[in-house]
Write a structure and sequence with these properties.
The structure is a homodimer of 214-residue chains. Chain A is 43% helix and 18% strand. Chain A has 214 residues and is of the alpha/beta class. Chain A has a 7-stranded mixed β-sheet. The structure holds a DNA duplex (30 and 30 nucleotides).
DNA sequence: TTTGCACTGTTATAAATTTAACAACCATAA
DNA sequence: TTATGGTTGTTAAATTTATAACAGTGCAAA
C-alpha cells in the first residue's frame, strides 16, 4: 500500500520531461527564484500544467498550495531518480563535427554524467584533446571502455561505419548506445538503444511546412 | 467513398517512419534489390511487420502478394507525400560544430530539401563556404531568408542566443523551425516547431542503463 | 487438382499517453 | 465570518499509437 520505491515503470515520456524540467529549474534557480507553479513550468516546456502535475505526482513530489513547488527540492528529487549515484561514464565514437559539438554541449554541465573518452580513426585527432576530452584510436576502444568503466556510448561516425562501431561497442561491454547516425543498428536485448535521426526530423518539419501551405 | 487524396491526417509517427523507410529503401535499391517484404523493412527499423504494412496501408500503397513491395515505386510514393514538389529551402543559424555537422549530413542527399544558407556572428566564418554552403552574417538574415525563399530554419546557436535567434527567424517569415539547442522557444501558431534536446536523450539512456543495473 | 504456406491488407483490441474534470485546500478580501 | 479565486493532486475520459487477429490471395509442391 506504500508509495512505489522504484521508478522502473515511469512512462518514457515522463523520464524525458523530468530531464527537461530539471534543466528549466536550474535556470530558474540561478535567477534567484525559489518556488515555481506548475503552469510556469508548463509554459516553458510548451505543455499543459496538468501534465506537469501528473508527472510530479508520479514521482511522489508534493508542492505547497498557492506557493508552488520548491525548486531546489524538486531538482534534487529529479536527480535522485534519473541520475546514477556513482555517476556514469560516457564515450563518443566519432570525433567529427557532431562528436565535438556534443562534447561542447555536455562538458562541465552534468556532474553525474561525464564524457571521459573520444574515439576516432583519424591519426591527426588521436592523442589530442577536445574541450578536455582525450581522443583515442578506435583500436584501443575495448581497452579504454573497460579501463574507465564506460557504460554509455554515443555513435557519431559516418553512416557507413555505424554497424561496425556498434559491434565494437557491444563487444566491449557497453550498456547503452545513443546512435546519431542515420543507419539503424542492432544490439542485444541487454543493451539499451536510443536512435535519433536528424534527417528524419528535418523531413518531418518540411512535411508539416508543406502541409500548412496546402 | 474514395481514398483520401490528402495526407494531412497521417499520424506523426507514420510520417517519421516513412522518412526512415525511404532511406532504407534507397539503400536497398542501390544494392540492386527491386522488391522488399514488410518484414524486411521491419527488421531494419526495429519495428514489427504489421506496423510497416499499416503505414503503407495508410498511404494507400499495395504490394504484390508473395513478392513484396516494389522498392522504386514505394520510394516515389513516399516522395510524393513528404516532399514538396518545388522543394524547400533551409537555413542553418549557428555555424559551430553542430551546424557544420548537419550540413555535412544533408548536403547532396535530399534534392527536394536543400540547405541554402548558413548564418553566424563570427567574422571569421562569414563569407566562407562550408561543404558548399555560404555563411552570412546574422544581420543579413532577414534579407537572405526572403531573397532565397527559405522556409525552414535550424537553430544550432549557443543556448543563450536561442530566444533571440528564434525571434529573428519568425520575424523574417520562416514557416518551420527545428531547434537543437537545449532552450525551448516560443513561436506563433503558424510556425511549425520541432525541438530536440541532446542532453535529454543522453540522460534518458543513462537512466535506463542505471535501471538495468538495479 | 488440391493442399499448404507465406505473404498482404484490414479490422479489432490493447497499451501508452495526454487531456479533462473536479474535489480539496487555504490565502485573501469583503 | 463567509465567499472568492487560484492552485494542487487525483481520478476519469479521450486520444494517439502499437499490437494482435485473421481473412484473402496466389504460388509451389504433391
Amino acid at each position: 500500500m506504500t508509495k512505489q520505491l522504484t521508478f522502473k515503470n515511469l512512462p518514457h515520456k515522463t523520464i524525458e520531461r523530468l530531464s527537461q524540467y530539471r534543466r528549466a529549474l536550474l535556470l530558474c534557480l540561478s535567477n534567484g527564484k525559489t518556488h515555481i507553479f506548475s503552469h510556469e513550468i508548463a509554459k516553458i516546456q510548451h505543455i499543459t500544467s496538468v501534465q506537469v502535475r501528473r508527472d510530479l505526482m508520479l514521482i511522489g513530489y508534493s508542492g505547497t498550495l498557492r506557493k508552488g513547488y520548491n525548486i531546489e527540492e524538486l531538482i534534487n528529487l529529479i536527480g535522485n531518480i534519473i541520475d546514477s549515484e556513482e555517476g556514469i561514464n560516457v564515450a563518443i565514437v566519432g570525433m567529427g563535427n557532431l562528436g565535438r559539438a556534443l562534447i561542447n554541449y555536455f562538458t562541465g554541465k552534468r556532474h553525474k554524467l561525464e564524457i571521459v573518452a573520444g574515439f576516432d580513426t583519424n591519426p591527426d585527432k588521436i592523442g589530442n584533446r577536445f574541450s578536455g576530452v582525450e581522443c583515442y584510436s578506435i583500436t584501443e576502444l575495448n581497452k579504454i571502455i573497460k579501463q574507465k568503466d564506460i557504460k554509455v556510448g554515443i555513435i557519431t561516425v559516418p553512416a557507413d561505419q555505424t554497424t561496425e562501431t556498434a559491434k565494437t561497442l557491444v563487444k566491449a561491454g557497453i550498456k547503452g548506445i545513443l546512435n546519431y547516425t542515420p543507419k539503424p543498428i542492432d544490439v542485444p536485448d541487454d543493451v539499451y538503444l536510443e536512435e535519433y535521426d536528424m534527417i528524419t526530423t528535418l523531413e518531418k518539419v518540411a512535411f508539416y511546412v508543406k502541409m500548412s501551405d496546402e
